[in-house]
Amino acid sequence: MTSQPPITIQRLTWLRWSCTTAVGLSLWCAGAALAFDAQGHRGARGLAPENTIAGFEQALAIGVSTLELDVVLSANGVPVVSHDTAPNPDITRDASHQWLKSRGRPFNTLSLDEIASFDVGRINPGSRYARDFASQRPVDGERIPTLAAVFKRVRTLRADHTRFNIELKHNPNRPHESPEPAEFVRAVLEVIQQHGMASRTTIQSFDWHLLREVHRVAPDMPLSHLSAQRERFDTLRSGVWTDGLKLASFEDAPSMVAAAGGKLWSPHFQDLSQPVLTRARALNLRVIPWTVNEIPDMGRLIDWGVDGIITDYPDRLRTVMQRRGMELPPAMELPNDKQAEGVPPPVREPAPFGVAPDLR
């Protein structure tokens, strides 16, 4: 490793606050001080089926401080955990155990029973997705969980240290596949409050209109402004994703986030440089990039001083953190019955390198 001059690492910490929302929810948001936030992306997508109970259990067994997950609404307005606004044929089998041939009907047109009929316990072996995530171990029979079911399972496992980073999935270019922002936000906030998870939750989205709606309803709910400046996915240029704001009107991405009222910025990790991070610090932004899967990238970003990392491979991130003498989140022991059911055991060593992260 090439020697480098010492870097002064500055990380912002969670603050304490109390909040009362406009929907009559009384919340005490007591964020614990976190020097570094190790987030398991969709649970532990590189190792276990994404956005499933088995995947979240795998992440907890490895040891993360935050479970990152995605939420959409069913036809009857129940928050369910899915990265896509419609069933993804790369990971979805129907009730007859056949792989979907194409994207299914949007989740906001499907009942809970219809959603529960899908098996999302493995990747279609003929897909590029399977090649990209060759280390993922299948858990056949895994279903798309409701957000409430995730909260209940975390409670049952007594993972009281674990936070949640919940992404509201809404594509402004496909508005018919998502509920209206007010309905979406209210449904998610109600489940968060019903399960007593307000003090442990951040809400994130690429669609900053939704974040504005969250702030209107629950002004003290922590928010994360997601962004991407990729060739095939640029959310900052047109204003469609960013509630009318356009990058051309600002000095840089951090100033754009600050103008939107952001306190936490989550950019694609390749959009981040040390000067850009320094600029974000000057604007008092916390910075947690996504989705960082290779050990050299993790090490570089940690040395720059990011506040956390979102990764498909929390085992690799723990290795990097341990090498630097950083405090590690607790690794949980799964109940014996879960091991017997085939949930992958915790991975203690880094998985093979070379997995390219896809766009969120």
UniProtKB/TrEMBL annotation:
Q: Which CDD domains match?
A: GDPD_SpGDE_like
Residues in the signal sequence? 1-35
Tell whether Hydrolase is among the UniProt keywords: yes
Q: Which residue ranges does the record assign to the GP-PDE domain?
A: 36-321
Provide the residue span(s) of the region labelled Disordered: 328-360
Q: Which UniProt keywords apply?
A: Hydrolase, Signal
Identify a single GO molecular function assigned to this protein: glycerophosphodiester phosphodiesterase activity
Q: What is its EC number?
A: 3.1.4.46
> Which PROSITE patterns does the UniProt entry name for this protein?
GP_PDE, PIPLC_X_DOMAIN
Q: Which SUPFAM superfamilies match?
A: PLC-like phosphodiesterases
Record's protein name: Glycerophosphoryl diester phosphodiesterase
Q: Which organism is it from?
A: Hydrogenophaga palleronii
